[in-house]
Design brief:
Layout: H1 7-18, H2 23-37, E1 48-54, E2 59-65, H3 75-79, H4 95-106, H5 111-114
Antiparallel strand pairs: 1-2
Helix pairs in contact: 1-2, 2-4
């Protein structure tokens, strides 16, 4: 079973599962489809969070693909500029990296095939 807010994305997820993909594979493919079918609700400029249950080990793992800040950015630098007027307060979107991480950790299909 695969469920989302858009029929086409759900069909893609079900097709991935039917061809031997994991739930993580289906989620990556469905999220990518939602970026096209429902762009006002989701987008590549966002972040990705996932909880993944592994039935074989009975464990849950978490993935936090929220945006990262540049390595050289410090609180001292940020404190000198108000957030509304300085681009250094904006994080780098983590959605695409999250797709890659989720597929690598819990998937069985190549990312290129899922997308």
């Amino acid at each position: 079973m695969a469920a989302s807010s858009q029929r086409l994305a759900s069909e893609i997820g079900a097709r991935i599962l039917g061809s031997g993909g994991t739930a993580a594979d289906a989620c990556v493919a469905m999220d990518a489809a939602l970026h096209v079918t429902e762009p006002t609700s989701t987008g590549l400029g966002g972040d990705l969070f996932a909880l993944y249950y592994d039935a074989a080990t009975r464990t849950v793992s978490a993935l936090d693909a929220s945006g990262r800040a540049p390595a050289a950015l410090t609180l001292d630098v940020l404190s000198s500029a108000p957030p509304l007027h300085d681009g250094r307060w904006v994080t780098v979107p983590g959605c695409c990296a999250g797709w890659a991480d989720l597929a690598e950790r819990h998937g069985s299909m190549p990312l290129g095939e899922l997308l």
